[in-house]
Amino acid sequence: MHPTPARSDARSVYVREMFAQIAPRYDAANRVLTAGLDERWRRRAIALLTPPSGGRVLDLCCGTGDVVLHLLRSDPTLDVTGVDFCAPMLEAARRRALRAGRSSATFVEGDVTQLPFAENSFDGATMGFSLRNVVDLDGVLREVLRVLRPGARFVNLDVSKPKNALWRRCFGLYFYGVVPLVGGIVGGSRQAYAYLPSSLTHHPDATHLRERFERAGFEAAQCIPLVGGAIAIHVGTKPETSA
Ligand SMILES: C[S@@+](CC[C@H](N)C(=O)[O-])C[C@H]1O[C@@H](n2cnc3c(N)ncnc32)[C@H](O)[C@@H]1O
């Protein structure tokens, strides 16, 4: 494994500093903003990964380690690595993993558009609530494909755009209005929680994101909408022929 320097473009630096600022209260803000449902959505997503027992799994943009801990709870034999470019988020993840008795989890500082791992080295990859924050979406998909073993899956869980116009409007009021306000109070930064919803604005909708998975080279790409499409799980498989 070779550490790679984090991207230094202005948006990446902004995103990294923003997460450093909200790291101490990130988990509390998530629970409040989703009424605890975020944990249920993570479990739904992880159930779709189906890595082999003892397999090696990569969690991209691991943040404070939520997905990593769920993976290890679902199968303690897994060899799970979390990667993130924000040091304070990783520190929080390491502390949580120790407290939870999951010292086998590995946390690596790195940029998901230049993963510091060899090709064909993971039996599955996950990503939670992060793809819309990453500057180069197609670059991430390319990198995930590179490090996955043929036949392995990538499962991505994120906020999305409901198809139903009325529900999209209601969700928009919550996401663009309530989240900055409540996130600002609980998470400690109004600015950060105003940025996070705006990162959805230019993110592809669920159908287009599935197409981007296919264009990147994933096969059997599918999208599972949750909460009327406000949340979406995308799954793609690395083709067996791409060793
Ligand atoms: C909203 S948090 C999600 C954390 C966690 N996956 C979860 O489910 O709660 C987004 C994370 O993505 C990380 N991130 C954003 N862009 C990144 C990049 N290019 N490389 C590595 N990490 C990145 C941030 O540092 C932050 O920890």
Spans of at least 5 consecutive residues with low confidence: none
Distance between the amino and carboxyl termini: 19 Å
CATH architecture type: 3-Layer(aba) Sandwich
Our Rg estimate from Cα atoms comes to 17 Å
The share of residues in extended strands comes to: 15-25%
Instruction: Tell me how many strands there are.
Output: 7
* CATH class bucket: Alpha Beta
How would the global form be characterised? globular
Overall pLDDT level: 93
Tell me about the largest β-sheet: 7 strands, mixed
Number of domains: 1
Order of helices and strands: HHHEHEHEEHEHHHEE
> Can you say what the CATH homologous superfamily is?
Vaccinia Virus protein VP39
Characterise this structure.
By secondary structure, this protein is α/β, with parallel strands linked by helices. The protein has a single domain (10-237), classed as Rossmann fold (3-Layer(aba) Sandwich). 46% of the residues lie in helices and 20% in strands. It is built from nine helices and seven strands; from the N terminus they run H-H-H-E-H-E-H-E-E-H-E-H-H-H-E-E. It has helices at residues 10-22, 26-34, 37-46, 66-74, 87-99, 137-147, 165-187, 190-201, 206-216; strands at 56-60, 79-84, 106-109, 122-128, 148-159, 219-226, 231-237. It has a seven-stranded mixed β-sheet, with helices on both faces. A hairpin with a 4-residue loop joins strand 6 (219-226) and strand 7. The mean pLDDT is 93.
